[in-house]
Amino acid sequence: MKNKKNNKLIIGIVVIAGALLYLVISSTLSQSQYFMTVQELKAGQAELVGKNIRMSGVVLGDTIAYDPQTLDLTFEVAQIPGDHQVIQDMGGMAAVLAQAAHDPTLPKIQVHYKGPRPDLLKDEAQAIMTGALDEAGVFQVSELLLKCPSKYEAELPAQSK
Amino acid sequence: MFYVGFLTSSLALTASAAALILVIISLFRKQTQLPGATVLLTKLSFFAHTAALLSLMVMQVLQDYSNVYVVSVINPAMPWILKITALWGGQTGSLFFWSWIVSLCVFLALTGKKRLLDNWSFLVVSLNQILFLGLSLVADNPFTRVWALEDGSLVTSLFAPQAGAVVERLTNGMGLNPLLRHPGMVIHPPLLYIGYALYLVPFAVGISTLARGSQSEHLLDQTRTWLLSAWVFLGAGIVLGSWWSYDVLGWGGYWAWDPVETASLMPWLASTALLHSLLLERRKNIFQRFNLLLVLLSYLLVVFSIFVTRSGLVNSVHAFGESSISIPLLVFMFLLLVSSAALLVWRWKSLSSEWKFESAFSRDALFLYTNIILIALVLICLWGLVFPLINGALTGVEMTLHRGFYDRSTTPLFALLVVLMSVCPLVGWNAASLKRLGKRIWIPLIIAALGLLAVFLGGVRQAWALGGIFIVILGFATLINLTVLDAQAVGLKNFPKLWWHQRSRYGAWLVHAGILMIALGIVGMGNLSASIEGTMIPGEKMPLRGYEIEFVSVRESFENPEYLTVTAETVLYKDGKEIARLNPAQHIYPDREQYITIPDAHATLRGDVYTLLAGYDVDVPYITLRLSDNPLVNYMWIGGIFMTAGGVLAATLPGKRSEREEETQTAEETLDSTSAADL
Fold first, then answer.
1. Chain B environment of A32 (Cβ under 8 Å)
2. Do B146 and A156 touch (CB under 8 A)?
3. Mutate which of B68, B151, B405, B610 to disrupt the A interface (most A C-beta within 10 Å)?
4. What mean pLDDT is predicted for residues B435-452?
5. Quick one: which of B179, B403, B419, B625 is 20 to 30 A from B651 by CA?
6. Do B69 and B1 fall within a single domain?
7. Band of the pLDDT at B313, cuts 50, 70, 90?
8. How far is CA B651 from the centre of its chain?
């Protein structure tokens, strides 16, 4: 009697665990994406077309073009390192962003996004973008995330008496 | 002011350290009673900590621009309330504020009527308190000042970095990030922090229970109020954060499965499971092991959440930038994890593990299913957060999970939870009761069916939405039906008294009603919302479903010295009749090259008609507008209020078992003679 109950329990647990595992594994496989830097994306451009990619780069303020009529937003982002340690060694994210935004030698890529212009989009902001590369080499962004608080928090303003 | 803050904060740390040493000595002497001196020192530490916190606040309000933190979050144009709340607007201040909240909880645990902490549990809370205060003061001291060196350059330091340096008082500060200047953001972090910190005390009591090897019987009594309060604060904080995001982040999203959001949900889910199985432990004395595990897990997840927010290892909108405290936090987290696990393993056998279910369809069983789902959700969240790190470490390729991962894997589970929640109150505590379920379910079922029909005739065709709405109405009708039955059973005159005596039960129902409403809001946003974007010149109209919006004018004005206000004037029509005037706006901060959009919505119980100013030109003039119809969204916020109210109600029940039983016994006797006997 007791064994029978235990068997039921075990079967129940196996079924539940199986369903959960399926859910997690299938979701992981279908929803994971490469996290790349601009440089890596440029290097592997040919075979990456159409793949779901998440990319981080620094926004170049001068290149921002926004058409409020069609909600077409284009800008360029430049390479920033993807490795936290490297960023630390270079003096932190704020410093990296400031430097990368004004270094013409770094790899850049054109980005297109359709939608209202995000509040935080501006020069030296870090853009974390989800999307895919199109045939023309433009990164078509479906999800645009911007960060730039560190500049305001970490540094003293350039201010003199 | 610097000296007040610096000295009191240092004193707080010193006093706490001394208290900790005393307790360690006392533990070596095999005593478990907390030494009186420790209590005194801890209280002293709390008062000093409070004084330090106040002095930082004073510096903010008085705009002492020799303080680096003040410079980074304050400017003269901010209203005084924001000058105060800027305390938790930046990384430095919020870490200090968090350490104070932890101190506050330790203080409360020491001052309660019945002393909650013994040497072991004090050891745990004290280590936590010292860690966070220490991290704040050592790694990122909030009292750091601006210094001018002899060559004129500015540096930051607590004390003179070199001979000849003088304290520099800057003339202006940067001000708080505009996104954070919102009532939601003013109270969201404190609520979250208080919730987080309240989990510490049950955690410590749990560790102490294991360390002493005593039965965990009292665990529940001692910490019930703490756990419930923690759960209420955390839940309210999460809902408020969600509202803030809907209202300020512009695009009307309420939840994005951002790592920080996900991490804050995890302790909430774990402790939701805990609250349920504690109830079973009380009724049937089962699940002791499981409960201890959950008590420990809840706080471990809190520390994990703090780590996610502050370490900079995870990309997130909410996360602060990278910081120097990630390594100590990581080490501390592992220390807590390993010692909790070791203690659990050590004492595993001595904990009762009785486990009997009379039926797969009793309320016990439903509780168990609920908890399995909740734990599964926690595991999914955890996987989502650590997968990128694990994958990166193993393969060297950096990959992340899209939010679709969470949507896909959690939606079926959340849906199941809502179904369970709807039918659970109908199911008896004991034997299989499919029969009585049949008896009780028909009234709610009819109501739900009618509701479904009404919604269907109203034009809703999406299967998920229909199913969701049906289940929610069913659950709601059930709760109301049962309440009415209770009232009938004891008579209307006696009902308020019963209601009060049984407030843990009615509180739980309120919470469930709130969650059902939140589910309704999610169904509305997820399945029924629609939006349209367009550019309009004055007089033009844009249609969406039965609505039409007309653009009247757009103007710029300086209402605030800091930003330019752009306001669009629009009129909203429904079926040709004017129903509202909406003024979506933008605040443009020229100095920051930043602007924030201020949406405007016509809010009713049906939902929001939500407008967002996406672009404009005053001279032409034209505006680009996004118009969204977000049905049912407001039930999310109302549900949040219900959830909080229910939690508070349940938490007011006395913590001590004897007192509580006295109160509930009479009520249960009354109910015994009624149809609700088994509830």
1. 387, 391, 399-402, 405
2. yes
3. B405
4. 82
5. B419
6. yes
7. low
8. 17
Using CA atoms, how far residue B281 sits from A153, B364, B374, in Å, is: 48, 10, 18
* Closest by Cβ to B402, choosing from A24, A33, A154: A33
pLDDT of residue B32 exceeding 50, the answer is yes
Say if residue B506 is in the same domain as residue B648.
yes
Question: Is residue B423 a part of any domain in this protein?
Answer: no
List the domain range (segments joined by +) for residue B115. Answer: 1-177
Tens-digit pLDDT profile for residues A30-86: 877 777 888 888 887 777 888 888 888 899 988 999 887 788 999 999 998 877 667
In a domain, B419, yes or no: no
Q: What residues of chain B lie within 8 A of the CB of A116, using their CB?
A: 250-251, 533, 597, 612, 614-615, 624, 626
Question: Is B302 found in the same domain as B279?
Answer: yes
Q: Is A78 helix (H, G, I), strand (E, B) or coil?
A: strand
Amino acid at B303: V
- Answer yes or no: do B337 and B351 share one domain: yes
| CB B551, CB B534: distance < 8 Å | no
Q: Mean pLDDT for chain B?
A: 85
ipTM of the prediction: 0.71
CA–CA distance, B82 with B37 (Å, rounded to integer): 39
pLDDT in the model for residue A153: 40
User: Which of B125, B152, B177 delimits the end of a domain?
Assistant: B177
- Three-class DSSP category at B617: strand
Looking only at the bridges linking them, the beta strands covering B564-574 and B547-557 are antiparallel
Top pLDDT among B217 and A125 is at A125
CA distances from A57 to A94, B164, B392, B432, B588 (A): 13, 42, 19, 60, 24
DSSP three-state, residue A77: strand
**Co-location of B593 and B604 in the same domain:** yes
C-alpha torsion B466→B470→B472→B475, nearest 10: -170
pLDDT in tens, A109-124: 999 998 878 777 888 8
End-to-end CA distance of chain B: 58
Residue B506, classed as helix, strand or coil, is: helix
The answer on pLDDT for B36 being more than 60 is yes
**Do B678 and B429 meet the contact criterion of CB atoms below 8 Å apart?**
yes
